């Protein structure tokens, strides 16, 4: 029975996000692949939902693959996309990878916000890298005060 409602990019992104919240990775990817087969082109929200889902499942390599796929398809990451990876790397104690992503933000012309700085500072402190955290805090202070 048809309801007359046609799924769009927003509804697909919401569905993907919901599957990941329930740790249903295969179903999320099935929706993503089906969306593409129907000619619905993923946007930054869709890709970010995938990245966030993979990060929440501890699959940082997959999250990074999605990030790289997004850029290769000509979809420009936004600050939220970068922050997802930084947060994921910090949670997995992969601070050098988080710093690499953080450094990549400024090369794109996007400015990190207080939340992005805070995430990296927190990650550094949790690994006992207080000197680096202090440098980040001073940089943040100069930027935002």
From TrEMBL:
Q: Which domain of life is it from?
A: Eukaryota
Q: What species was this sequence derived from?
A: Turnera subulata
Q: What is this protein called?
A: Pentacotripeptide-repeat region of PRORP domain-containing protein
**Which PROSITE patterns does the entry mention?**
PPR (PS51375)
PPR repeats: which residues?
Answer: 8-42, 43-77, 78-112, 113-145
Q: Which family does it belong to?
A: Belongs to the PPR family. P subfamily.
Give the matching PANTHER family.
Answer: CRIB DOMAIN-CONTAINING PROTEIN (PTHR46128:SF73), MITOCHONDRIAL GROUP I INTRON SPLICING FACTOR CCM1 (PTHR46128)
Q: Which UniProt keywords apply?
A: Repeat
Answer yes or no on keyword Repeat: yes
Phylogenetic lineage: Eukaryota, Viridiplantae, Streptophyta, Embryophyta, Tracheophyta
Pfam families this protein is in?
PPR_1 (PF12854), PPR_2 (PF13041)
- Please indicate if the UniProt record lists Protein transport as a keyword: no
SUPFAM superfamilies, alphabetically? HCP-like
């Amino acid at each position: 029975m048809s309801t007359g409602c046609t799924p769009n990019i927003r509804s697909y992104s919401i569905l993907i996000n919901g599957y990941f919240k329930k740790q249903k990775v295969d179903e999320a990817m099935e929706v993503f692949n089906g969306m593409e087969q129907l000619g619905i082109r993923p946007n930054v929200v869709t890709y970010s939902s995938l990245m966030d889902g993979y990060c929440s499942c501890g699959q940082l390599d997959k999250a990074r693959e999605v990030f790289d796929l997004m850029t290769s398809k000509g979809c420009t990451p936004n600050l939220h996309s970068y922050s997802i990876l930084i947060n994921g790397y910090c949670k997995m104690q992969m601070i050098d990878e988080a710093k690499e992503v953080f450094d990549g933000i400024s090369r794109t012309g996007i400015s990190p916000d207080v939340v992005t700085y805070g995430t990296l500072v927190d990650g550094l402190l949790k690994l006992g890298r207080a000197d680096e955290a202090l440098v980040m805090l001073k940089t943040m202070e100069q930027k935002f005060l």
